[in-house]
């Protein structure tokens, strides 16, 4: 009999969770409630004696000092409304899983396979609310209907004797697993319909290629031998659709593009090959530190003589729109599996996250089923927090951008770095291999219907009793346990190949690694399931989290399985690698799929796409000549510039003990650090710097310069803390709106594709110019949110084309790193780099309500000189502080340097190295690339100026003893007169939650 | 120094600071070994063979059921081939050996009843470490050391800086009597302090709202010690958030900074004690 344990706070204890919900209801929904208390509920579906129930409730489930508990007796009383929020069947319940283990530990016996623990939370609300208001609170704040159920009970009809019955949210699927065959010998229209109905996302060309494959006489003959019919099974069709998906094959980046600019036509064969890979190949001839690029889950570079670093950044946008918390946590722990599953395996050492949201203060109408941006932001941040903190990986750098075009789909870029010894058991750690006869072992979590068909949730109604396939919830602890164990296995040489189960699940992880041996056999009935009733294709494609696929040689299998068991990690042999050339799948002894490996991986027809570039001319704003102090204050409060301390403090950035440059820095530890620096090997002084460059607003003018600026910004931040161009690697991450022209669906597709082409041209031009290769990357090409509203209208919100460059640099000695805060009164302030009339897409123009035309352009040759000179000056210990000059221009960088250091400043705009500028606002707020604000001790000024010889660099003022921030304009009069306290307050208050 | 101090650093189930904790032990001169809790339960490693037992920080079981609860439950009821694990730990304490619990490790020690353990009764919980008033927070804190405390680990230290990174670090004694006794018998070892290194209830100097700003306590012997902040995360001067400012100030005075982080003092004290009393 299932029973309930309820846990409430003891008298006098502060209910911080209740308080924060109360505040959120007020701030997000503008509904006032008097008081909220919380009760934790465990529904235990296990046979326990009364004494055992008592032992469990009083032991691991409640705190002896701060909490009280009850068994099968409600604790709720004195409320106007009671809301209980629990998971729907099949949704990952991490705490329930821990609860089950805790019972086993406490009682010293194992529970049965069908015994389980489920959690829910009660909110006791006091206040004058209608049921409709309470239901709004449920939907908007307390839970998510996609994955959770609500009980809403009003205080008057509450029966304290009866309470809420113990309900067990298990998937009760009586479905008998089956394999379907699909007839592809049909008309073109029907082929398209099959693709659409099955959410296969295959084009007509691709469907035809599949149909033709299954018509080949030799294929038919082989199928007959295996007992397969002439028609493909659903297992085969789904496997092909998955393997050929945009997500896995990057079809747009590999397409042939007809690009038209000024009436001139160029044919581009694969942006990936002709821009990204070509650049890296060229650079790799000169740089000896590239270890593995573009071929593994993450890129690998050399760190020290005996250690390498793996780096991967990817996005998890759509899931985060649906379930911000689950989407984001799955994003970060998923990216972790990429870095951890690179080469023979890496130890995770850092995270970096870049998030794009609509304004959390958005007041407009929201389309149905889209969460308010603030809820999305809070949920995503919580997901990133739990994903990083609970896995013990420090989040050392990141960025948050706001633009209302991210309202339909937030962008959640998750980055993960791993450290690996250069050799493991005498073999290069980057080499993975699979010999025929090796076992396919799946380790970690179990398989459910989680994330099948990733983004195609909306077509399916969720109901009690049906599993939630839409959303996955990451389980950081299951993953941490697994990854810890796999590092032990790696060092003992217990496997030869490792890869993660992400998109496409086993079909993808085994399909890809089977290329090493030349084939595989998978036995789907052996795969451990969360619940019964999965069809074979679902087992193969499930994207259930926290799973890795390993190639374990037969002679190591016992040792591997024994280690897994001793570490509490589930591991199962699900097949073996072969050299038959076939992707061969069995279920209960019967073949359910057999596809030629060659066709699976190389049978995909190439796309041909159209692109046309037409620059847009925009109006220029009138520049103000007065009130510049106020404009600066307003800019400090621009959400894109304002302090993100509320978010940063929630991320552990110190774990692993090697923190050097933290995301917040300065006198009061609250200034905006440029790049994060860590010392991953504690007994050495070599460091790793991580930064990001992103500016989608420039893309509104020209994505070529947007991309150049993003590359420049990522590099500049590494230089600012003490890195150098000697060794900086980049990762490119493209998030685009659908760029495939369609007269009805996407009439502006040619322009959007031209934007993509230009971005890639800049990528090639600037990565080669800087000698900073891209070592890995990712693209997410369909960031449009389309849905039919309750009003019957179609909604489409497209993100602005957004490219993120993440940089990793090696710092030879972290003791020489510098931070951005002014250090001493009397120090000299320098502006480095040339300021030009480049306010197009700037935060200042945005403040004036304009985009403009003069987008910042990067002069790569000059930038290189500047960066080399700056690296030399920092290495020589000549620089007291160095700050990247970006959003908001010189004025914002100077203000940040001043208030972070706790000193005032006096600046003369006439001395700023500038190109034909006659307006103070231009000098102050232009966002020209490749610039720094630097402070230098007076006795080092001469040496610093010598070090900067040949690059634009000028002494523009000094650090004051007091707190006044003063700027003298081009005509000698004071144009900004304020105090650093005021600037800092303007900068901090907008996101001080 | 030949008879080396042997230090056991536990890991597993989401503990995540074992590497830097072992490193801090090593810097202090101990011979440190990282061991999975299950290898101790399985009898592959014996607690008895060590002088110092470290419960490092982390997120054991993801803080599910309340921080440290599930791990404490596991240790309390685990059976090794040579008897219950808790008996081995009791013997370890009786033998005059040392235990340190940091962050999640502190939560585990308190919830197991190993701290504060009045009258050397190491069973039963008398205090708790509970949800912060304002959620998870990563920041550096200033700590004032109670020089009246018998705590072995904080000897000779009067003030020290370290990072905190936790969501459940609010120390709450079970009653006023418990609190009074904690003070009277020298259990209180560390308090969160303001810029003048005076104990404070002000957020964020006191990051979690701990009663009497208590950041760390020891048992009556001073040999079992737990604290929320992370001394192992201050193993080198570059860890300090003010490092570049300190370096700049020092360089203008023409002096060099000491490289070792202050956090290592905690283990130096432990190693010194063990060398004097147990080797």
Automatic annotation (TrEMBL), chain A:
Record: residues binding ATP: 312, 732, 777
Protein's UniProt name: Phosphoribosylformylglycinamidine synthase subunit PurL
GO molecular function, one term: magnesium ion binding
GO BP annotations, alphabetical order: 'de novo' IMP biosynthetic process
Domain of life: Archaea
Pathway the protein contributes to: Purine metabolism; IMP biosynthesis via de novo pathway; 5-amino-1-(5-phospho-D-ribosyl)imidazole from N(2)-formyl-N(1)-(5-phospho-D-ribosyl)glycinamide: step 1/2
Cited SUPFAM superfamilies: PurM C-terminal domain-like, PurM N-terminal domain-like, PurS-like
TrEMBL record, chain B:
GO molecular function annotation: ATP binding; hydrolase activity; phosphoribosylformylglycinamidine synthase activity
EC category name: ligase
Gene Ontology cellular-component annotations: cytoplasm
Its EC number(s): 6.3.5.3
Assigned keywords, A-Z: ATP-binding, Cytoplasm, Glutamine amidotransferase, Hydrolase, Ligase, Nucleotide-binding, Purine biosynthesis
InterPro entries: Class_I_gatase-like, PRibForGlyAmidine_synth_PurQ
GO annotation (BP), single: 'de novo' IMP biosynthetic process
Name of the protein in question: Phosphoribosylformylglycinamidine synthase, glutamine amidotransferase domain
Naturally occurring in which organism (per UniProt): Methanocella arvoryzae (strain DSM 22066 / NBRC 105507 / MRE50)
Gene encoding the protein: purQ
